[in-house]
Amino acid sequence: MPVCDHCKKKWTWKETVFSKLMLSSSAPCPYCGEKQYASAKTRKRGGIMVLSVIIPMFIVSLFDFSMLFYILFGLIVFFIVMGLSPFYYELSSKEESLW
How many CB atoms lie within 10 A of CB 54? Predict the structure, then answer.
């Protein structure tokens, strides 16, 4: 679970997922209120996690399954990735560039 770069308190799974769903570049720490940003390492991992959703969908599309199967499979993979993502999430007090 991520740890606030300012107050060093560990965020819960729920707090981490909620901060990611806010679609903002920063999220306030629920304990100290300081703005926290996803680290560059986390954002790079996020790109890889997107591929972990797309690649299985591409592989499954090679077979002749119903559209309902594709939708359900995609949702299951998406929720697994979203459920596991807080475990690799790291925070930073400043916005880091990717390169």
Answer: 11
